[in-house]
Amino acid sequence: MAAGNEKLTINLGPVDLGRIDLLVQEGFYANRSDFIRTAIRSQLVAEREPLARSIERHSLDMGVRDITRDELEAARREGRALNISVVGLARIASDVSPDLAQAAIDSLAVLGSLQASAEVKAALADRLR
């Protein structure tokens, strides 16, 4: 599995699974995962416009959002708390302490994956949406 990928588990009926296996057997796809990734990407392309409108409406960051100690310290110095919303991957730097995260982050919404130390995740538990 490539770095940054998340593993998903899905349930399929035997007929759908058999149809996928037939496409794999016939060489259309390398394996079941290849078929599923291709199907998901195709659906996301088909839903591109509604997704774009929703991202804009909710003021979401798209892709990878690195949250650094410098950014959080600046917010704390300025007396403002951050409301961070991400579609994709949010990474809180390893040098961010739980106290700093609590002081500088008012809310954190991640549709995708959050990478942070266990301590920082615990400190932000009441602010995660």
UniProtKB/TrEMBL annotation:
Pfam families: RHH_8. Transmembrane segments: none annotated. Signal peptide: none annotated. It comes from the Bacteria. One of its GO terms (biological process) is regulation of DNA-templated transcription. CDD domains: RHH_NikR_HicB-like (cd22231). This is CopG family transcriptional regulator. It comes from Salinisphaera hydrothermalis (strain C41B8).
